[in-house]
Amino acid sequence: IAKNQGETEFHQAVQEVVESLMPFLDENPEYKFSKILERMIEPERVIMFRVPWVDDKGEIQVNRGYRIEMNSAIGPYKGGLRLHPTVNLGILKFLAFEQVFKNSLTTLPLGGGKGGSDFDPKGKSDNEVMRFCQSFMTELQRHIGPNTDVPAGDIGVGGREIGYLFGQYKRIRNEFTGVLTGKGLEWGGSLIRPEATGYGAVYFAEQMLITKSESMKGKTVAISGSGNVAQYAVEKIIELGGKVVTLSDSSGYIYDPKGIDSEKLAFVLELKNSRRGRISEYAEKFGVEYFEGKRPWEVKCDLALPCATQNEINTDDAKLLIKNGCYLVCEGANMPSTPEAVDIFIESKILFGPGKAANAGGVAVSGLEMSQNSMRLAWTREEVDARLKQIMSDIHETCVKHGKDDAGFVNYVKGANIGGFLKVANAMMSQGYV
Ligand code: NDP
């Protein structure tokens, strides 16, 4: 803790992993002797840099850029870039640490990393975002490459930003390679990548429901967020016959008891992706209730999919969800539930899918984008979707294998941590003291 002062979210993520791994490590002391965990919590490399850019008024702005290269034992560093004013070293280290386990669970050869900046894209013009991205990549390009470190999108980084970043990389390095994922379809992107995290989380939720001989059909679902992950989670749930009744953003949430249908979802996509507007406009347009400054965990639902940000479900939210009949929580976002909330879910023995397993679909399809780039060919939508489904089912199986107790209850947190740890730890043991 002394070494990583003030990095609250990083401590939180490490503590969760250490607590659930300890009994396993006691039974398998070779990992303890090799100090694998101690090595895994120390990033292989942290890069911090100045990002100066000029705004539309001609004034110079200075942001801070980061890339955490956490672990490359099983493949090149891989993980998203986040642009949000809350970004700091501790948040990115927590995300990079989680990414190592998540990427290992995907069954693909991907190491773990994360990066971003405290730049706030909200209210910025396209030209300002472009100038920021170009300045950010001018430094980042010397640290990344298709066989070294392959960043992707995250909060605040979608197709537009990946385009600007890729353009600048290509211009400086004079090479067209798969150095970023989440690219446009015409220039190396993969079909299903935009949908992958949302679809993947729903596929994972379905697998959890199957263990209770149930399906998504007829289920009432509360979702938070209204960005990339939330949008495609809604799309897949509609397709599978479920009913999504909430969406949110950092200002508040909407409650639509009749359910968000395809037509209303099309409005959300246009609102959020083209106009970058607020979710409150949904309430005005469709005449439903809007709750300013609140999160959607107070509504009655069978399933909850937090798809916005970290620590958005606290103890009170967790208790309320269970009291209102919710019996499955599947994390589309990274670490949306506080450790106390996770304890409540596990003690209550509801189905709880942690982000590092449930939202791994995004990075999995990023891995598939890298494979297609290396082969210089493109798979069909059906092919990528089938692979995504298979990967989510394999991740679920790994969680069950390592997380099922004698009474048949599956602790998915334990399962994901042990499953993700083993592959990386074994690779590190084979590679010497690196
Ligand atoms: P987007 O930027 O597309 O959307 C984020 C959504 O969350 C927006 O609705 C945003 O509202 C809301 N939000 C962001 N910060 C806060 C906050 N501090 N409080 C309340 N709401 C907030 O991001 P994504 O959908 O891509 O990412 C959502 C989550 O999923 C993140 O935790 C991300 O790390 C995780 N994730 C994403 C993957 C991907 O492939 N995109 C892969 C795996 C995980 P507003 O518009 O008001 O900011």
TrEMBL record:
NAD(+) binds at residues 197, 228. The record marks 154 as: Important for catalysis. The keyword Oxidoreductase applies. It comes from Thiospirochaeta perfilievii. The lineage of its organism: Bacteria, Pseudomonadati, Spirochaetota, Spirochaetia, Spirochaetales. SMART domains: ELFV_dehydrog. This is Glutamate dehydrogenase. SUPFAM superfamilies: Aminoacid dehydrogenase-like, N-terminal domain, NAD(P)-binding Rossmann-fold domains. Keywords: NAD, Nucleotide-binding, Oxidoreductase. Pfam families: ELFV_dehydrog, ELFV_dehydrog_N. Homohexamer. Residues 190-432 form the Glutamate/phenylalanine/leucine/valine/L-tryptophan dehydrogenase C-terminal domain.
